[in-house]
Design a protein that fits this description.
mainly alpha, rod-shaped
Amino acid sequence: RTWVNHMFGSGDRALYTMFEMTFSGCWPGYASRIVKEVSPVYAAFFALYVPIVIFGMINIISALFVKEAIQQTSLDKQIMVEHNAKHEKRLKKDLKDLFEVADTSGDGHLSMQEMHELLLQPKVRHWLSEMGVDS
C-alpha cells in the first residue's frame, strides 16, 4: 500500500503514473502489482483501460500516419498530372516547330517529299522513336 500511495497518492502523482503507464509501455508492471497486492477488483479497471486507452491511442496514431500517407499520395498524383500536362504542351510545341521547319514550301502542309526529308535526319528519327513512333 505504501507503493500505491507513492504512485497514486495525489492527483499529480496519479496523473503522472497513468501517463507513464499509457505511453511508456510499462502498464503490466503497474497493473499486476495493483491487482495482486491491493485488490483483484482493479483487474476489471485494467481490463477496460488497456484496450480502450492504450490500443485506442495506437490506432489513432496509426490512423494519422495513414491519413498523411494518403494525402501525400494525392499530392504526388496532382504533381504528376501537372508534370504530364506541361510535358504534353511542350511536346505539341516542339512538334509544331518541327513541322513548320520541315514545311519548306510554306503551304502549311507536309508533302511526302518534305516528310521523307524530315525522316532522314537521325535526330528526328531518334526523337520520334522516344515518343513511340516507328519511323
